[in-house]
Amino acid sequence: MIISESTLRTFTQNIFLSMGCSEEHAQLAADVLIRSDMRGIDSHGVARLSGYVRLWEKKRINPTPNITIVHETPTTATVDGDAGLGLVVAPFAMKIAIEKAKTYGSGWVAVRNSNHFGISGYHALMAVEQDMIGYAMTNASPLVAPTFSNERMLGTNPMCYAFPAGNYPPVVVDMATSAAANGKLEIAQRAGKAVPEGWIQSADGSFTTDPHALKTGGSLLPLGSNREHGSHKGFGLSATVDILSAVLSGANYGPWVPPFVSFLDPPNDPVGLGIGHFLGAMRVDGFRPVDEFKSNMDNWISRFKSASKIDPGQGVIIPGEPELEAEKERAVSGIPLVDAVVADLNELADRFGIEKIQ
Amino acid sequence: MIISESTLRTFTQNIFLSMGCSEEHAQLAADVLIRSDMRGIDSHGVARLSGYVRLWEKKRINPTPNITIVHETPTTATVDGDAGLGLVVAPFAMKIAIEKAKTYGSGWVAVRNSNHFGISGYHALMAVEQDMIGYAMTNASPLVAPTFSNERMLGTNPMCYAFPAGNYPPVVVDMATSAAANGKLEIAQRAGKAVPEGWIQSADGSFTTDPHALKTGGSLLPLGSNREHGSHKGFGLSATVDILSAVLSGANYGPWVPPFVSFLDPPNDPVGLGIGHFLGAMRVDGFRPVDEFKSNMDNWISRFKSASKIDPGQGVIIPGEPELEAEKERAVSGIPLVDAVVADLNELADRFGIEKIQ
What we know:
- By secondary structure, chain A is α+β, with helices and mostly antiparallel strands.
- Chain A has 10 helices and 12 strands.
C-alpha cells in the first residue's frame, strides 16, 4: 500500500506517545523514522517501529529519559542517554555539538547508554542546516566478523559525513561499513533469492550466497569482502566506529553491544552502558568563507557528475543524491509499505488501541 | 641489500639538505620517510625520495616554505604550505591541531598548497603521543574512478585514525580508500604477475588482472571493487577525503590534483593551490578519563585478538599491529631495499655529490 507522509507520521507519533514518550520526544522520534522512509531507506524507517516497542516492553528502552552531559570540555562532551530512544538521544547530542561549534569552530559528542538511532544521515544533516560539516556514527548489534574470523564481533556500524553545497543539494556519505547492509539481506530473504558472493560467510568462514546463513552461525563480511579486496579496511572502519562510539563514551562495544532484537538478551557481562554513538559538527567558515566553500562544492559535484561513463545510461551518482530523489518523489506520491510492515504496524495499533492505517 | 636505519636516515637527510631544506626540515622529512620504511610500508619511504627531488627540480616543491595559518577559530585552522614538502607541512599542521586540542578539547586543520605527505599514520600518531585520538588524510594524484565511471577522478586518498591504548600498542587504522593501494600494483608490475579481479579496470571499464592497465587508460577501483560489493562506499570515503582535504582548504580536488610524477604537468586550470590534507586531534580526556579509556581499549584489543579463527594459524589482526611488528624487527635487522631503489638512491647521490649507500 501507499501511505501519505502525514498519515504515517501521525500514526508513528501516536505509537511513541502510547509508549509514554513526551509529545516533543514522540514528534522527534517519528520525524527520524519518517525521514528514513521518505529518503527510501525503508529498512530503517517504520519497519523498525515494532522493534522499538518490543525493546520498550522488555524495559530496555526508557520512554522518559533524563539525558545528561556527564563530561565536557569547550568542544567535546560525553552524553548519557539514560537508556532512551537513540532517535531522541542522538539529536540531543548533535545539538550540543552544533552549539559548541558555533562558539569554538567544532563540537564532538560521544554518547553512551543509548539505543539504535535510525539513519546516520538525519543527524549529520542537522549540522549541514547550520552551514557546518556533519558527522554521525553508531555501533550496533554484532553481525559482522573481522577479517580472518568467523565470529560476529561488530555491527554494520554506519558512518556518515554530510557537506553543504550551494546550488546542489548536500553531499551525504551515509554507509554501513559492512559489504552489504542488513536491510539488503532481509530483502533477499523475503524474496528467497541468493545474495552475491562476498556479502556473507557461513559458520565455517566460507563465502555463501544463502541469505539465511546468519541463522546458522554465519556472519556478514566487512566492506571489501575478503583480505585480497581490502576487507581489513572495512574491518578498520568498523573498528573506528566502535571505538569512537563506545570505547570513548563508556558504552558497550564489539560483541557486548546489546542486540536490537528483543528476543535476544544483552550479554550478562556488559563492559559499558547501552549502545554508543559519536556525533560531530565543524563550521565551514572555521576554514574558509562559506560562499567560497559552497561554490567549490558545486564545482566538485558538477565535475563528478560529468565524469566519463562506462554505460552511457548510468552516470556517477553523487552520495546523497538517490535519497534526495526518493524524498522528492515520495513527498508527491506517498510512502510505499510492503504488506509485512503494514501488518506489523496494525498489530501495534491493536496493541495500543489506536486507529489502524488503511 | 639491508641497510641500517641510521645510515639510511643520514643519507636521506643529506638529500633533503642538498635540495636546500633547512636542517630542521631535512631531519623531519627524513624522519617521515624512514618511519614508513621501518613500518614496512616500503612504497611510501625512501622509494619515493627521487620523486620528491624531481618535483623540486621542476620547481613544484619549495624547499624553504613559509608555512602560515591563513584562517582560524579556536579549534579550526587552514594552513597554506607554500608549496613545501608535505612531509614538513603536515607535521606543522598537526602540531597546531594538537595545541588547539590541549586548550579546547579538539583541533582540526585543513591544509592547502602542499605536496605528498608520506604515510598518514606518522601524522596521526603525533596526537597519540599526547593521549589524543589522531586523524590524518590527504588527497592525491587522480588514479581511481568513481563507481559507474572509467575516468580517473580521485587519488587513493588515504585516511587514518589512531587511538592510544594501555598495555597494547596504539590501534592505527591507516588505509587507502581504493580496493588496493598503488604500491601493491607496483609490486605486481615488477614481478610481472596478474592482480586479483576487482583492483583495476581497463579503459572500457571492465575488470582486468593486468597490472599495467593504468598505462593504457585504465583506473584503480574504489574499496568495494564494484557496485554490488559496495564500491559506492569506497567512492564515498574517497570523496570525503577529497572534500575535507581540498574543497575545505582551498587546494586542488578531484581530477585537478597535481600528479606526483614530475613527467606529468599539473592541470593548467587549477581550482586551488597544490594538494590538500586534513588533520585532527581530540583529547581522550575530553570524553572520559584517560586510564578508563586505555583499559577499555586494552579489553577491546584483547577480545578481538581472541575472536574465533577460520584458519587456526591466522587470528584477527589488530589495525597497526603488522606495522609495529615490522618496526621492531627492522630496528634489529635493518631495512631491506630492493635493487631498483638502491640504484635510484645512488643516482641521487651522484646528482648531489654525496656518499653512496653501500
